[in-house]
Amino acid sequence: MVFGLARSSLRCLGFARSLARWRKPKSTRRLFCSQPGLQDLFALPALQRFLDQQQEEEQRQEAGARRGGSALAALARRLRRKEEELGDTERLAREDENEDLRKLAETEIVFCQEEIAELKRQIMLHLIPSEETDESDLIMEVTSGVGGQEAMLFTAEMFDMYQQYAAYKNWNFDILEYAPSDIGGLRYASAAIAGHEAYRQMKFEGGVHRVQRVPKTEKQGRIHTSTMTVAILPQPNEINLTINPKELRIETKRASGAGGQHVNTTDSAVRILHIPTGVVSECQQERSQIKNKAKAIQILRAKLYNMKLEDESRKRETARKIQTGTKGRSEKIRTYNFPQDRVTDHRISRSVHHIEQFMLGEELLDEMIQALGEYADFEAVMEVISESDLTRLR
Amino acid sequence: MTVFYSSLWRKLWCLSPYCGHLGVIFARGCVLHPCHRLLRQYSHSKAGLVTAAELVSYWQDVFEANEIPEARASSEYIVSYVLGAKTFQSLNAGNISPYFSVQQQEQVEQLCAKRLQRMPVQYVLGEWDFQDLTLKMKPPVFIPRRETEELVTLVVDEECRKRLPSSDCKEPRLPPETHGPVILEVGCGSGAIALSLLKKLPHSKVIAIDKLEAAVNLTKENAERLNLQERVSVLHHEVSSSSWKYLLPWGLVDTIISNPPYVFHEDMTHLATEIHSYEDLGALDGGSDGMNIIREILHLACYLLKDYGSVFLEVEPRHPEMVKNWLRGHPDLSLVVCGTHKDFCGKLRFLHIQKHGR
């Protein structure tokens, strides 16, 4: 039921967008008052029920056992009190006989409203669940899909786009694998991307990207549809994931015989097998073998971490439109339609024009990614609320 | 010779200032077979235009036909180098598809001609990577091997361990972070070990010695290219010489590191042509038991090393046992093997020796 509610109230994205604006600490309080989205969200009976429930729960057990429960309950209580205060003051402003008092009440109302907006903003921040991967760096893998050489050409263009986007965001972009095709396309590549909020933002790029255009290789001017896939793997830190070195089989080009000074080989490719899972990674980007090994381990760690996260998330099935991990990977998320000069993201039904500019990996791509982030935040909040609603009804 | 009338061959033939040389090789008929395939391949592409991938497989075939070791890798490294990349896998789509210019094809050909004479790829390119560094390589200065990267990692790990607060306090007051270790490298060659240590340990200082003047000059040149010359003192010095006092510009040293010549003399004849014909054999030949220089270093360690200082050596897999025995017979040196480590092939390759206080 709640979900239906969310969908209907969400038809326009402005709603989600306003939600994201609250995240930004620098936005002034005044701004919130003019956010219709805020009022709408707080008008949802589900949210009201959720906040009530938080308070009840807190009364039942003093130490808030639930995540952020007690802080949230406190905020909800303060919000309720402020709203009552506002109601009283409004009555005062309307009905009091003394004009000075009415004026005073009116100024009071403005303060009240500002405080309410701030409280609501804080409640929202509590509701957006934080994730272990929020601060992570990532490894991006791109793979060409349906469409032969044209798909590979598109994959190369997409890889360039993300490389430029990383530069635009001031992130580090380190290519780990790169398997080009003969005519300048790209079969497969991976890169390590590191920087502020890199994973948080890039995670929405995972999925199937579709291109519609007349390929360079097409002689009769027909429009083809081809695909490529992006996978975004969060990079674990030392604490998130530990690997027992004994579980790794590191394969290198072994020299026959004595090794060391006796031979001079140049092949420095490294392949690593994680024996318990059979996961394999390899690197031959570098002339230094030890650097290839370090990069191969980095890839392997990201793959294993991703598996671990997926195991965890499989347990909590979600119906979100924006999925990360394997669930999102097989989904067609975006279409690049060249004849119409349009890029459409199917998850949020958002279209932008000027493909070439979009594929420069600057403002247009960034706006799309921000919109997705905002929508994902909104969905996350709705999920928290609806989950709790379901438990309550049960 | 009929096969050589393939378009690519004609192209290469006309371009090459090395015609004469290649001609000799081809005349032997070695490369006939690959050209059959090439003929088919190139009939599809426009005459005169070659891409990186095509060039790589062409030269791979030529190398294979001439029994050049690592034919594929050699061809890839050379083609990538001409395109300004380090490996074929690191070429991006942008520079892999365009056709090679005449000059570039010429350059590839010149470099491949050197490789055909069994020159090691590292000398052909004039540079190679070691750990995080790209170093200039010049014959006959010894080319650093893959195993030696692990030797550097061992020392760096050990240094980090020492600096952890929880380390045992045999050395009660560790110098502050701004005073890193003083390291002596014996037989610096191209400077690979010394310079990557300086890079990884920002407060360290290194004295690097070599008996070959070309090596001393190359280490100096590499140090300057990497802007590390301030913290390294490169000296032309024979380890067996009796005057060692001037090796102590910064006092006794914390660590001695070396990849000394350790090949048993009788094994020298089995070395590949690449090594035999191009590298300074003095950097490899360790005498009848491969220990000539190892013994010199251990003698020197006794004078130059601080108490509890370490010696790290890359050795032959038979050496760890031999060195242990030898040290037992020389208790006056106050040195003891405190660790052995295997290389990536699982061979005993590295020795960690420590000096105990007297």
TrEMBL record, chain A:
Gene Ontology molecular functions: translation release factor activity, codon specific
Gene Ontology biological process terms from the UniProt entry: mitochondrial translational termination
A Pfam family per the record: RF-1
Keywords from the named record: Coiled coil, Methylation, Mitochondrion, Protein biosynthesis, Transit peptide
Entry coiled-coil feature ranges: 72-122
Record-linked SMART domains: PCRF
UniProt domain Prokaryotic-type class I peptide chain release factors: residue ranges: 254-270
Gene Ontology cellular-component annotations: mitochondrion
Subcellular location field: Mitochondrion
Family per record: Belongs to the prokaryotic/mitochondrial release factor family.
Name recorded for this polypeptide: Peptide chain release factor 1-like, mitochondrial
Highest classification ranks of the organism: Eukaryota, Metazoa, Chordata, Craniata, Vertebrata
TrEMBL record, chain B:
Signal peptide limits: none
Known catalytic reactions: L-glutaminyl-[peptide chain release factor] + S-adenosyl-L-methionine = N(5)-methyl-L-glutaminyl-[peptide chain release factor] + S-adenosyl-L-homocysteine + H(+)
GO biological process, one term: methylation
Top-level class of the enzyme under EC nomenclature: transferase
GO MF terms held by the record: nucleic acid binding; peptide chain release factor N(5)-glutamine methyltransferase activity; protein-glutamine N-methyltransferase activity
Domain spans labelled Methyltransferase small: 179-268
EC number(s) on file: 2.1.1.297
Keywords assigned by UniProt, alphabetized: Methyltransferase, S-adenosyl-L-methionine, Transferase
Release factor glutamine methyltransferase N-terminal domain segment(s): 54-126
Gene3D superfamilies assigned to the protein according to its UniProt record, in alphabetical order: DNA helicase RuvA subunit, C-terminal domain (1.10.8.10), Vaccinia Virus protein VP39 (3.40.50.150)
Domain of life: Eukaryota
NCBIfam families: hemK_fam
Record protein name field: peptide chain release factor N(5)-glutamine methyltransferase
Source organism of this protein record: Anolis carolinensis (Green anole)
